[in-house]
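User: Predict structure, ligand zinc ion.
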Amino acid sequence: MKIKCLFYFLLFPLFTFAQNVHEPSETPKEWSAPYAPFRIVGNIYYVGTSDLACYLITTSKGNILINTGLSSSAEQIEKNVKTLGFNFKEIKILLTTQAHYDHMGAMAEVKKLTGAKMMVDEKDAQVMRDGGRSDYALGGKESSYTPVVTDRLLKDGDHIQLGNTNITMLHHPGHTKGSCSFVLNTRDKKRAYKVLIANMPSIVTDKKFSEIPAYPEIEKDYAYTIQSLKKQTFDIWLSSHASQFNLHEKHKPGDAYNPAAFIDRKGYDETLGELEAAYNKKIGKQ
Ligand SMILES: [Zn+2]
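Assistant: Predicted complex:
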């Protein structure tokens, strides 16, 4: 009897999560504004909204999609993939830089439409399965996105291989417990490029780090991520939000293919410097 009750207790909230998805409605308009898709470099394409970056990586054995934007962006991504001349159903692997609703909103739908496998940093697996409900900063009674079943858990340094493409995942916790960046090599007719898709460690919570019992390692994790990102080498960097890597200054809709526009170590170091300053201020360091 005791066991039965416990079982019921465990199951019941799962049903409740799945039925109550409440995506925040007050979001910046650039998050849902459509944006013309384009080829960034080699086999990496921008298929996101005006600010919520989503990347399509095409390979000889099907394609990879990183991030989805809000729930409303499923249709936009599908259209963008088509506009570029690719088959939406050829998406075989789904990834995210962080399990927040502005990057996961349409993930469950895209997974349903494509049958692709969801691979996630193991530390974001729980929050992904409850649709953000257990998130240490944005969590609450309701899910902020439709929960997604995870097919493979990734650890720091793990490789994601599809066809001729090999992506390395870097565990970059702080923003969420399982935030991560991705590194891959690509090339075009002229040359090879090392590309970093960086999850920049912006601070979500207004609370002091010491006041977050749900995430006791938060201060240490942010420090680790900032140091790790500083050490990365790359030719081109991209990020989870277009505004973070100044997409709109580097590219205008209709521009010809120009990967050189995204070669920008200086912008990367400046952005990271600002985030490190915010972190230092948060922990009371001068
Ligand atoms: Zn976020």
